Amino acid sequence: MTPIRIEKVGDINFTYPYLELFKEQQLNPFMEIGITDDRELSFTIYPIAEKVVLTLEQWEGILTTAKEFLPKALRDEDSFQEWYGKESKP
């Protein structure tokens, strides 16, 4: 089975970072794992030229990574907002 590469992306246009999933050696992701405004995980699957086949182990690994990513990303954003609120007050 083709290995899966997961990259964390921070984008100034989004409140939270997100994860992009790639088939090894591919430049374009086949999936994005993001966080909604309701602070829930969202999974976006992109159409790519070749099909993506995942084993159960790979899918469970993706879900585990997503579940671990969510509380960390929320905690980081909450900490930033708390710090930024203190810094912006006179």
Gist?
This protein is α+β, with helices and mostly antiparallel strands and 90 residues long. The chain has one helix spanning 56-87, and strands spanning 4-9, 18-23, 31-35, 41-45. The relative contact order is 0.17.
What does this protein structure show overall?
- The chain has 90 residues and is an alpha+beta fold.
- The chain contains 1 helix and 4 strands.
- It has one helix at 56-87, and strands at 4-9, 18-23, 31-35, 41-45.
- Strands 1-2-3-4 form a 4-stranded antiparallel sheet, covered by helices on one side.
- Strand 2 and strand 3 (31-35) form a beta hairpin.
- It starts with a strand and ends with a helix.
What topology emerges from the helices and strands here?
Blueprint: E1 4-9, E2 18-23, E3 31-35, E4 41-45, H1 56-87
Report low-confidence residues grouped into runs of 5 or more: none
Count helical runs. 1
How big is the Rg? 16 Å
- Number of structural units classed as domains: 1
Largest sheet: 4 strands, antiparallel
Shape: elongated
Strand content: 15-25%
Strand arrangement in the largest pleated sheet: 1-2-3-4
The helix/strand series, from N terminus to C terminus, equals: EEEEH
Overall residue-averaged pLDDT value: 90
